[in-house]
Amino acid sequence: MNAPTTQARTLAATRGLALAARQLVAGAMAGIHPSRQPGLAREFSQYRAYQPGDDPRHIDWRLFARSDRWFVRESEIETSVAIRLVLDATESMRQADAATGVTKFECARVLAAAFALLAQAQGDPVGLYVIGGSHPLAIAPVAQRRPFDRIVHALEPVEPGGRWPPSLPLMARTTRELAIVLTDGHEHAGEIRAALAPLQARQHEILLVHLLTAEEVEFPFEGPVRFEEWETGATLETDAGAAREGYLAAHAEHLRAWRSAWPRHRFEFAAVRIDEPLDRSLRAILLRRLRNL
Amino acid sequence: MLSLALPLGLLALAALVVPAVIHLWRPPPQVVRMGSLRLLRGNARPPVRQLRWRELPLLALRGALLALLAFLLAQPLLQLFPTPARKWALRSPDAILTGGAEVAWRALLADGYEPHWLSPGFPSERPDSPASDLWSLLRELDASLPKEAFLAVASPATQASLRGERPVLSHPVRWIETPPPAPTHWIERFGSNADGQTVRALVGSSGPTGTHYREVVVEAQPQVVRDPNGEWSLEILAQPSGISARLGGSEAPAQKAALAARPLRFSIAQDRESLADARRLEAAFRAAARGSGRTLEAVERNADWAFRLGSSPPPDSPVNLFEYAGGTHSPLEVDTSFAAGVSLRKRVPGLGAPLLRDGFGDPIVSESLPGTPRRLSFYSRFDPEWNSWTAGGALALWLRQEIFATGDSAMAVTLDRRVAGSAQARPAQGGAALELPPPVPPPLDLTRVCAALALFLFAGERIWSHFR
Prior knowledge:
The structure holds 2 protein chains of 2 kinds. By secondary structure, chain A is of the alpha/beta class. Chain A has 9 helices and 10 strands. Chain A has helices at 8-13, 17-25, 61-67, 104-122, 147-155, 191-201, 214-218, 240-259, 278-292, and strands at 36-49, 71-78, 82-88, 126-131, 137-142, 177-183, 205-212, 224-229, 235-239, 267-273. In chain A, helix 6 links the parallel strand 6 (177-183) and strand 7. In chain A, helix 2 crosses helix 4 (104-122) and helix 4 packs antiparallel against helix 5 (147-155). Chain B is an alpha/beta fold. In chain B, 23% of the residues lie in helices and 27% in strands. In chain B, the strands form 6 sheets. A 7-stranded mixed beta sheet of chain B has the order 16-15-17-18-23-22-21, with helices on one face. Chain B has a 4-stranded parallel beta sheet with strand order 5-4-6-7, covered by helices on one side. In chain B, helix 3 (56-73) packs antiparallel against helix 9 and helix 6 (275-289) packs across helix 7 (394-404). Chain B is elongated, with a radius of gyration of 37 Å.
């Protein structure tokens, strides 16, 4: 069965964030990460001969009684990765797609809820950090029974606003963590990179989802245009047709700089156009992660 | 040579403002909000709000279309050959076009000559004034016309209109001599003899051969006296107002002269200061009466005209009065030539209607109580120190006009019907005989060509505007 594509228009019409996230995840067959790896746990996997250095507590004494040989009991253990959702809720996230009117923030919020739902399905702890906006949040990724509901409840009242704080490093935890950053990538003095730097230093994985509008990618403007910056209100009037070529080159360089911000084995960059179906974009992200692992 | 039949049509060129405004006008810029201007700053061009032409080729096409339409309104004409010279046909007011003169005149008009009257202003309609100094008029026209002009004049060769030095004109003149006007007769003078029983009339006659006078002395009773040659008849009339004479004849206009029964009496009253003024006035007054048919008689009382100079007592009976105005005099601090020769005048309120003014428009002589008797006020004196008017002959001429009313120079000119000699009857024109210019083909009308070109440009503009 083909998953229904979630157009941005449909997303805008969907009132409930949880419903939109469930609709989005319905087509995503892969999880965020492989959740099982061999090890010691209650779920039996195999026996192997005892070797010096093994913990004597792992010896199966019943088998020893029957066979008079020492065997160590092995099983697949549950490995959980803490998912840290970092949502950019600065003023610039109000940027909307010209055709549908859906903003970057609305897309980012649905994607965050979808990732939370996927994490819940995998039993991973999920945390949420909202940077800027009307309700700055910092919910640490702790194991909870239904983290999705809490995440959605926290996301619903958030409205974008303000700027990314110039000095707000995200505190890294010692446990293994995947930070999913949903942002438009606009920074004034490298504040987003600075905030993510501690995570990178702790060998945590970062998935940066860069949200783009069609206008940013194609720059279809002609003639005299006055551009206004969302966060500062600064204006720039120019002949858009004449500035297109230079802008597109600068934009490509901007994306390339983000893509190569950190070593590739711990950093993944995904550009998402908000005028394209979000479920398709989400599936593409997840499949690419599976291929890379 | 390109010319315009309606140059005012070029005013439509003002419509060129329309495409200019269209190509200068810019809509307000589109406003786009962006997450960051950082990517634009390095590539943005300077603001484009300043005036700048857009789509210059289309603007040029539209401007050319409008200019062509304006040109079309002006009705362009293309003269492939040199512009024909302007040709003037001038007719003297007393020219009678008959016979060969009429044929020649019609030929001129058929050849494109513009008919004008040889009169001040060179009007197209017949003027009221009779023929005057034609030589002066021709000199004036000759100086004002362009070099490529031709003149033709139809005029009788009368001495009265061809007075003075024969002019040398720069333009060729074709001269059409019209028949001389008919002889004229007039009563030059009419008065009573000393015996009181007879009257004397001096009848003037002027014709092509000359002007002569014939004196007639007859009894002062109604009768008709005929000229021995039958040219005129003089009728003596006895009317309640007095004896008068009327001149009639087959060609002469009727003229009537009243008999001057007695000399005109005048008196001059002066004080000690104005003795010299009185002498100058009497000399001018007698000069004015000369040739008027009136004799003068200086009297003390009951004068027809009383001149009151200075502070002399007023006359005791109502007569025509010419007096110095009262008040003090004041010098004019201006160039006397500019002030029409008046250097001193009296500053008093003017009385009645001004008859004579100085260079500033202030009255020198004014008349109050119009009618009979007349009363004239003089704001200066008959003194050369006060004005130059009384020193020359201007005062006598003015007195003749105001008091004797016989100095009609135009009448005298009209009455003179003598024919000018052959040396005077043509302007000196360098001996060049008039050669009529060759016929010139009419100019080519470019209106249709412009209209076709305008249609072509309009179609091009529409196509360009549609597919741009």
